[in-house]
Write a structure and sequence with these properties.
By secondary structure, the chain is of the alpha/beta class. The chain has helices spanning 45-55, 93-102, 121-130, 158-165, 172-180, 224-237, 242-256, 268-277, and strands at residues 3-8, 10-24, 27-44, 59-63, 69-75, 78-85, 108-112, 136-140, 153-157, 183-187, 193-197, 202-208, 279-285, 288-294.
Length: 296
């Protein structure tokens, strides 16, 4: 049976919600608050793992080192400040050994690299060298390196891509692919994504309408990249074709931005329902496919 092995920085996200009950008499602009609720959940690559477990019914095994704590504090529902505790993760060669030894035929291998310390670039090369043609490999990172060469799917954001190839515009994913020899997905947040499919020498430009009155409104973008990644991986494993998998990933990522942070994962039923009802228009122009999603 296929498994998903995830190596990445697990974070503990601690949300604290306060209500302002009065102002400090000595300093009137300082609120006096009362703690009304707090929630602790797995964040970082832990949120990716939680999302995968919701979206697809296969074993998801997470390998991680120590767990930094991120405390996000809200006063009257307004995000006010964040406190980070034990933010540095020490590299653990035995953990990498365990991960490499665990890779078996037909496993899906996912590296979620937040550069907190769990993974070194030499680890990535070693992991990719262990994988064979039966393994599909994925890397989500914010630093493109030569060690990423050979991964099946490299996901980065637009700023990371720009720093890597020093260009803007529609050719950016192809240029990153030229450096790494990989399929590349460049996410652009609310502006969609650009993907380059190396085998077909094909670029996908995906855009979408701004969300209007009556649709679900933006709350925040914490964890949106992880949910995009989870949506894409789960759709591919469910034997969806590449372009539908990319569109499904965008649907999951959008739904994640309509709820607060990493407290909840996107519900599979809700994601599947929204995906079935979206409207897209597609135009092909040579080696490019332009896809636009309309808001219903």
């Amino acid at each position: 049976m296929a498994r998903i092995l995830v190596l990445g920085d697990r974070l503990l996200d601690h949300y604290k919600f306060y209500k302002s009950i009065r102002n400090d008499p000595a300093t009137p602009d300082v609120p006096v608050v009362k703690l009304v609720n707090e929630v602790k959940v797995d964040g970082g690559a832990g949120y990716l793992v939680r999302s995968l477990r919701e979206l697809i019914n296969v074993d998801v095994i997470h390998f991680h080192g120590s767990v930094p704590l991120k405390i996000r504090s809200y006063i009257n529902d307004k995000y006010t400040f964040r406190e980070d505790i034990n933010d540095e993760i020490l590299h653990s060669p035995p953990l990498i050994d365990e991960f490499v030894d665990e890779i078996k035929d037909n496993d899906y291998v996912v590296i979620s690299d937040y550069h907190k310390g769990t993974i070194k670039y030499s680890d990535i090369k070693r992991i990719l060298d262990k994988c064979n043609k039966t393994n599909i490999t994925f890397i989500d990172t914010n630093h493109v390196q030569p060690d990423h060469e050979g991964v099946d799917w490299l996901k980065i954001n637009y700023e990371t891509a720009r720093e890597s190839v020093n260009i803007f515009g529609k050719d950016i994913a192809r240029r990153v692919s030229d450096k790494t020899g990989t399929n590349v997905i460049v996410t652009k947040g609310a502006d969609g994504f650009i993907a380059y499919l190396r085998k077909n020498d094909e670029t996908i430009y995906y855009t979408k309408d701004e969300y209007k009155n009556g649709t679900k409104h933006f709350v925040d973008s914490i964890g949106a990249g992880d949910t995009f990644f989870a949506g894409f991986i789960s759709a591919l494993i469910n034997k969806e074709k590449i372009v539908p998998s990319l569109i499904y990933a965008d649907v999951v990522a959008h739904l994640s931005t309509t709820q607060l942070g990493t407290i909840k994962v996107v519900d599979k039923t809700e994601a599947d329902t929204e995906y079935k009802h979206i409207e897209t228009t597609t135009k092909e122009n040579g080696e490019a496919i332009y896809i636009h999603r309309s808001v219903l």
